[in-house]
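Write out this protein's structure.
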Amino acid sequence: MPTFAIEYRYDHQAAARAAVRPEHRAFLRALLETGSLIASGPFDGDTGALLLARAESEDAAAELFDADPFQRAGLVAERTIRAWEPVLHCWED
């Protein structure tokens, strides 16, 4: 299944993100448990995050992350999704 790099860029709504973060992390944990999410984590300084995911297509990846509580609450100022071809990695295919 194709792998995608999803980058979130945050805006100035740090307090709102902090309030929604537990729901956001529960959402990501569920994706991890189903195998859709490979890894995720914030960039230094609360400026955004990088998520690595598996999906059938870019549209499917977008649909998957449209359900993210951060996205639904309008806390992601910009999101990019790009196909990514891992050559060396430490996870199972």
